[in-house]
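Hey team,

Sharing the FAD-binding domain-containing protein run so nobody has to redo it. Sequence (325 residues) first:
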Amino acid sequence: MRYQGGLLVVQTQYYCLAADGARSFMRNTLNIGWEGTKPNMTWAVLDCWIDSTFPVTREIVTLQVDGESRMAWIPRERGMQRFYVLLDGEITQEKTEASIRRHMVPHPVEFTHVEWFSKFEALISSLIKERVAFTFLHPTASGPFILAGDAAHVHSVNGGKGMNTGLSDAFNLIWRLHFLLQYLSLPSSTAHAILSSYDIERRKTAEGVIDIAAKLVRMGVHYSDVESPLVHQSEHGVWKAGHRAPDLWLAHPATGDAVRLYQKLTYGRYFLVLVGAPRNQVQVLEEQFATLIRLTGLKALGVGARRRDEDAVEEEVHTDAYGCS
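Structure output:
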């Protein structure tokens, strides 16, 4: 709805996406409740540069005092460090710095510059919520109201996955909506399966993020065990349906030039990879869909972001692969 020339103009849309944060107006208006808990914790957040003899690592570190893990240390860009500190009572920068020093004894710590300080209650509420909306799709599993990001799930700051998870929600959802709006004549059962799988896949991930945030470990995203109707349970070599595509070096048979698989991917376009398919099946596919796809034979050189052509070991992966876009 919008006002135009003093008149209220009502426009009808196919879907309404609620990505309006943890205090979502849309979620509250639709009376969509939460599943989960509200642990009574308030965290201080400090982005800073430090001078310390404590060994610096590129991994997330948690430190304990008196058997309690009340501090998480996450390295950031430009040499900056982020600290999450669980405090009681009044939350101040001075108390936060004192707690960090206490956790890092016997190593001295000097805070050479503080970029940002806040407390998590300022971001969501006075209590950290570890909760997931009981549905991401309302009033049916096909919408038309859809929740994403903090409107659908909130969790502890530990792990720093809030924005990443919200962006993943958006990417997971938008291709579905684009496809459904492009092909409005799809059978209702097909459209239902495509959209309802958003709730299935992203709910499983949100629950995992909440668990991971509590445990302070890194997240590996996959959809192979969530029973999504869009994921066929199969695998071939390093390829597993529902998992992130492996980071492979590939070679074009005509030129021999090495290229990473992820350099071939273009967001917003479909990219089909056929792995282990008999050559006669690939030929039939190319003949049937010649007007729709561009099929290219690719030779796998090896696995890993830093794999060099001369260091590649072909036995590590299955080399019969084809990509089409």
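The chain has a mean pLDDT of 77.

Ping me if you want the raw files.
A.
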